[in-house]
Every structure is written in C-alpha cells, then in structure tokens.
Amino acid sequence: MIRATSPLALAILAALLRVALVLALWQRSGATLEFDDERLHWQLARNLVQHGALRSDDGALAVRMPAYPLFLAAFAGFGDAGILAARLGQTVLGGAGVWLLTRWARDALGPRRAALAGLLATFDPFTAFFCNLLLSETLYIVLSLAAAYAVWRALARRTSGNHSDDLMAALAGGAALLTRPSAAGWVVLLLVLLLCARRGNALRRGLLYAAILAGLLLPWGLRNRALLGDFAWLSTNGGITLYDALGPQADGSSDQSFVADHPELAALDEVARDRAWRRMAFDSATCDPRRVLQLAAVKLARFWNPLPNVASYRDSPAAAASAAWMLLILAMIAVAAVRNARGVRGPAAGATASIQARDAAGGAGRLVLIAALTIVYFTLLHCVYIGSVRYRVPLMPFLELLAVLAICERAAIRAESARP
C-alpha cells in the first residue's frame, strides 16, 4: 500500500492537481498561446514534424536549444489538440519533478522532512501554472533536479567503483543545457563539485562527466556547423538577449521592439546577426559600467519580486496566491536562519553542533551546497540578463528544500535538547 506522503503518492497527487488546472484553463482559453516564446516553440516543433526541419517560420535554424522543441514534436502532429496533449504531458513532468525532489529530500534529510518538502512542491503554484505554458521551465526543472540529485548521490558515495550517479548527472546536466543555454555555467559548477569531491576518484568522475556532456552537445554543434557554418553551441539567440538586457534601451525587462531600429541587421545571416547583437551589447555595457550596475540592482529586484512584474497580471487572485506562497517560502528560510543563529550562541549550541554533524553525514550539508550554488548562480546570471519572475521558477524546488531543512533544523535542536 502506498503511503500518502511517499514520493510516488505525492507525484501522483501533483500530476492530478496540474491536470485539473490545465483542463480548467483549457475550458477558458483553449489552444491560445499567450507568449511569443510559446508560439516560437510550437513553430519549431510543428516545422520539425511537417517539414523535417527544426526551424522557425522565418527560417531561423538555431534560435532555441533543441531539447524542448523535440519534446513538443511528440504532440505537434495533432494540431490544436496537440497543444492540450503537450500541456497534459507537462503535468506528468511536474509529477516527476515532485518525485525527484521528495526522493532527494528523503535520502538527504529523512522521511519527515521529505514529506514536507514533497507537499510544498506538490502545491507550488508557480510550477503548477507553468505546466500550462509551452515554455521550457517544466522540462528544465525535472532535468535540473535529476542532475543535482545525481551529483549529491555521487558526492555521498564512498567508493569509485559505481559510476551510475556520475552517468546520470552528466546525462541530465547535458539535457538541461540542451533545454536552456543559461544552464551552461551551472553544469560547469556541478563538474567542479565532482572534481572537488574527497570520496572516490574525483578526476575520473569529472572526466566521465565532461566526456558525456561533450558527447551530448556534439550532434547539436555539428548540425549547426553543417547548416549555418558555425557550431552555435548555445543557440543564435544569445546576442539579442544580451542586447535586450544591456543595450541603451534596457530597463531590466524584456522588450525587443528595438529590432525595428536596426534594419541593417536584417540582411545578415543568423550567425552574423547574433554576433552583431552581442558586439553591440558589449559596446553599450563598456561605455557605461555604472549603468550596468544600476540595471543589475533593478534586475535583482525584478527576479525576486513576489508579484508579477507586468502590471496587468498583478491584480489577479493567482498573482496574490503566488506572492503569498513566495513570501511564505522566504519567511521560512529567514526566520529559521535567525533562530538557528541564536541557538548557536545559547544553551543549545552543543545540540546544534551534533545535529549539524549528523546532517552533514546524512547529506544535508551537500544538499545545502548544491541548492545554494544553484540559487546564487541564477540570481547573478539574471543580474546581467533579463530579470523576471519566470526565470526564478526553476529555483522553486531548491528554495523549498532549503525552507524545509531550515524549519526542521530548529525542531531537531529542541528534540535533542530534551533528551536526558
């Protein structure tokens, strides 16, 4: 019999809740694709199915990384019904993400904390809502959790004889990179963690990770080299995205209406245009470094804003619920951090030390390290690139893990202090 708080039970519950949300929104809006990125992803998938070419309607061949359009291609042959099928497919991915998070929390923190972490992930309004959007966040969350969990397992292993965790970390990390180019630095950080491990053969596991990662990227690079004359490892969208974030018109949000001001770039090929946008972005940034720092502060505020940054979305009940949820998670982390800091100075300091020692042995320390690196990396990245609540969504599982660890740490200290 499946326990109500087991990883599988929570995964099924999460998937069912997301199915209900998708069906309710389908009744309201049908196959409408609200965002430009949704329409672009669907174009890429549809053209792959209909014409055998991963390209946009305007002929761009590497404007997005391939993993998410390939996922959508499984549904693109069914027309508008395929949009609903893709959204329902993402509800399964949402359940898989909850299963991974709960398994990781159970291994690292124990069953009680895992149950709480799984419940937070199950009812997370951000990840639930994004199942209804044809955006790469839902797929990326599953892949990033799989990679992070596998690295945690690899670091916990005492011997180097079994490389299954290294293999899974590399495969999931590579797939995450093929989904979102912004993950490039993060997968390198995971490699650094493997190389710095004190257990097992760190160099061997690092070389295995790097080799698999390169092997996954190579077909994409060779395909782009053959079609575009350039490997374009991270797509041809990086230049315009950087200009959107750093150009003279930049205000921290994304508004690519500036394209109309540069008609001379329309005559360039895809790769040359990408390089031109990137060069213009660097020129703008280097001309006024102070402005770049000011923009970074604006982007940081936008990235961590509990409310949607777009004014037209702020008055909805969903926006209020999401803001309340975000504030709850952040408050759990902040309040528990303050309490634990006081506990170290007080009578429970010895208990705290013993709890921390057992947590480190059980994997909590490694979980905190991986989660914190993930959160800090993407926060800093989006102080350079566009700051948006959307780009914070993949961090929600890591924030929820830290929140659970933080609040349960205090309870563990009290329990330890009560022992004779």
Structure description:
The longest helix is centred in the first third of the chain and has 30 residues, at 80-109. With 420 residues, this protein is mainly α. Residues 344-361 and 411-420 have low confidence and may be disordered. The relative contact order is 0.10. The protein starts with 6 loop residues before the first helix and ends with a helix. The chain is globular and about 60 Å long. It is 71% helix and 0% strand. α4 (80-109) packs antiparallel against α5 (111-122), α8 (164-179) runs antiparallel to α9 and α14 crosses α15.
Per DSSP, the total helix count is 17
Q: N-to-C terminal Cα separation, in Å?
A: 37 Å
What sequence of helices (H) and strands (E) makes up the elements? HHHHHHHHHHHHHHHHH
How much helix, percentage-wise, in residues? Answer: over 70%
Overall morphology: globular
Largest sheet, in brief, is: none
Structural class: mainly alpha
Mean pLDDT: 89
Residue windows where pLDDT falls under 50 for at least 5 positions:
344-361, 411-420
Strand composition percent: under 5%
**Structure summary, number of beta strands:** 0
Rg, nearest Å:
22 Å
